[in-house]
Amino acid sequence: MAGVSVRIRGLSRTHRKGQQLIRILDDVDLELAAGERVAVVGPSGSGKSTFLHLLGLLDEPSKGTVEIDGRMAHGMSANERARVRNDRIGFVFQAHNLLPEHTAVGNVSIPVRLGGGSPSVAEARARALLAAVGLGHRLDHKPGEMSGGEQQRVAIARALVMAPGLVLADEPTGNLDPNTAGGVFELLLDLNTQLGSTLVVVTHSHELAQRFPRRLSLEGGQFREW
Question: What are the chain's domains?
Fold first, then answer.
């Protein structure tokens, strides 16, 4: 599947803390071309994760619009949003969020099963992608039997198994040591290049962000290019 285009207009997200209204995102306008790769940096608490949750249809803005491939998110029903999230958006989080009772194959198969794929198709796709991320020897291992880097590779395989048009990664290497982080990051970039997905990665590392052709800094509720 080709990457999706994203158009954001007047996006705002506020949070009330007691009597104080905290403005996390403040009237943001942003466009992402299909297949574009973007890094988002910013200080802790600046709203980077909030932005990804809005972009990934996991949360709703206080005001403004998110448009994915010409479709307005706020016009979708709850079922439509869930279908878009499963079929068109892949998520990679800092915490692996793997199901501990399932094997690597079982975890990666989940989006395919949710999308209506048969068990045999889901398993075949999971096995192929796990082999692609270098875990062909760990197919039947559960998360507790894997290292942190291996678990994150499983999480990346799960995010990409539906060949999503939009991949969102929130500090995907934040819990890994520098050497492991570099390898996992390169893997994500390489696989994304093969898929042609639109990629948005939140990272605290300016060094990793430098590998992206487009970089955005989020401060004071607004983006700036750098």
Answer: 33-60+77-219 (3.40.50.300)
